[in-house]
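User: structure tokens for this one?
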Amino acid sequence: MLEIRRMETADALSVYPLMRGFYDRCLGRGRYSEDLIWNNIDRCTGSYPHLEGWVMTDRVVVMGYAMVSFGYETAAGRETLRVEELYVDRPFRATDAATSFLRGLTGLYPEAMRASVEAGSRQEAEIYKRCGYLRHTTVLSTMDRRF
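Assistant:
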């Protein structure tokens, strides 16, 4: 039975190899420091106010994790959510753990106005669309420059 729950400090050793696999794939092996992983796990499990971690588990094995950050829609006076990372280990991808997380996200945060996630490929975009996410093209970024 799939369980989605907040990441706890006790999950760190289970989440670490999953996060490392995600970063190896996205950033390239050896192109990040190990401290990055531990800092992100600490932020997901501690009192850091801008990020929360979630795990997908069958109550025995942590199958995957997600990191959610928060924003605020001033015109609506409500919080917004952004899925920063979502990763399910290869042996568990057929369990629909990621789909269940994406579909249930607004239920986990009922006070939020909307949730968003960035698709890295057309295939990912199709998955997100099946989960009820819509494409928006108005996001601009400073690309790591300080302003």
